Amino acid sequence: IFSNRLFAWNPPLTTLEKIPQYVFDFGQWIDKQNISERTLLLPKLNDTWHADAFKWEYWSLSIVTSFLSRKNFIANDGSLVGSEMFFVNNLYADIENNQTSWQKLAGVLGIKYLLLRNDFFSDLNWSPSTFPAVYQKILAENDEVEKIKTIGQWDFYRIKKDPYEKVYLPEEVIFYSAQDEDIFKVLSLNF
Q1: How deeply is 35 buried, as exposed, middle or buried, from its count of CB atoms within 10 A (0-12, 13-18, 19+)?
Q2: Spatial separation of the C-alpha atoms in residues 7 and 10, rounded to whole Å
Q3: Which burial class, exposed, middle or buried, applies to 12 when counting CB atoms under 10 A from its CB (0-12, 13-18, 19+)?
Q4: Of 35, 49, 17, which Cα lies nearest the Cα of 126?
Q5: pLDDT mean over 3-26
Q6: Angle between helices 132-140 and 83-96 (to 10 degrees)
Q7: Is 91 exposed, middle or buried (CB count within 10 Å of its CB: 0-12, 13-18, 19+)?
Q8: What is the dihedral of CA 50, 52, 53, 55, to 10 degrees?
Q9: Does the structure show a pLDDT above 70 at 144?
Q10: Using an 8 Å Cβ cutoff, are 65 and 45 in contact?
Q11: How far apart are CA 93 and CA 108, in angstroms?
Q12: What are phi and psi of 90, to 5 degrees?
């Protein structure tokens, strides 16, 4: 009764999904890991739609990892509110521009891991994003990051430096009143 054209809402994307096995394999693997810190999803989602899009034809406003695991993944998706989007977008920009400050900002945001999805559909003309190869090159050349696992088209990286604890006792107290835009001044402080 139904043809596949019924599900092809915006070719080449479709709502009739055939999810690759490696996506499920990643979900099973990550759930077995002793990870409590956040994992940043790469590439950055499109700024207009904030949607997850993959070469295997998945497109959704819900990030696919939310269906795979209860681990803490973060992306510039629609779930971010207020200043969160500002900070996460600046983190993506710092990584893409290979700024040395990106690791400190990741630490402040509680991010210890990076998941590079090499099958991400970055070149949709109506929903462009940064190509995975941009991140591959930057991460491969960074001594402070190590690839710890590849499952199918997905590479899982660990930032060697631990993120800042949510509650900790500093050696010295620094008070700095700032707006969101001043994050770069704060990150330039020696802490």
Answers
A1: middle
A2: 9
A3: exposed
A4: 49
A5: 72
A6: 70
A7: buried
A8: 150
A9: yes
A10: no
A11: 16
A12: -70, -35
Closest CA to 113 of 42, 165, 10: 42
Instruction: Give residue-wise pLDDT tens across range 73-82.
Output: 999 999 998 8
Buried b (16+ CB within 10 A) or exposed e, 122-137: bebeebebbebebbee
What does DSSP say about strands 73-74 and 38-42: parallel, antiparallel, or unpaired? parallel
Q: Identify the CA nearest to 113 among candidates 37, 23, 43, 164.
A: 37
Residue 109's CB is within 10 A of a number of other CB atoms, namely 19
Model confidence pLDDT, tens digit, residues 114-143: 999 999 999 888 888 999 999 999 999 999
What are the φ/ψ torsions at residue 146 (nearest 5 degrees)? -130, 140
